[in-house]
Write a structure and sequence with these properties.
single chain; mainly alpha; 7 helices; globular
Length: 144
């Protein structure tokens, strides 16, 4: 197992600090573990390792960082081939709820919404992502 994937087992809240607005600690390590895993094509494995213990997104101290973590979790679940799309939708909605200014203009988030919309047999979510996934001009997504 690669060194960056090894799960940490610290006590909850142990080591969390926000030095120079960098949000150091186990939660940030878990967030980076997921982000790097996605880029290396090992996102599902990184997701499983990072979420063995609950991730306290409030420890990140930043709405944009928390939203980015949820967006990355959605990306991982979409990479899983459609078996966990419900969870991906929940993470995408959570990311949008936390920091819509971070998520709505993001081309990766729009691509995720389109992918999830194409996979579904019936509409399973509503709200801003419905407009995004169906190609609303206001969301900046071309129609299928």
């Amino acid at each position: 197992m690669p060194t960056w994937v090894r799960p940490l087992r610290p006590r909850r809240g142990w080591g969390e600090r926000n030095g120079f607005r960098q949000h150091f600690g186990p939660t940030n390590v878990a967030a980076w573990r997921v982000s790097i895993g996605i880029e290396l094509g090992e996102g599902v494995r990184a997701y499983e390792d990072a979420t063995r213990a609950p991730i306290d997104v409030t420890a990140l101290g930043s709405a944009e960082r928390s939203s980015s973590l949820h967006l990355d979790l959605a990306r991982v679940l979409v990479q899983d081939g459609g078996t966990r799309d419900g969870e991906a939708i929940r993470h995408l909605d959570t990311a949008d709820h936390i920091a819509p200014q971070r998520v709505r203009p993001d081309p990766i988030a729009r691509d995720l919404a389109l992918t999830l919309d194409r996979r579904t047999h019936r509409r399973v979510w509503s709200g801003s992502w419905t407009a995004c996934a169906t190609g609303s001009a206001s969301a900046g997504v071309d129609d299928r």
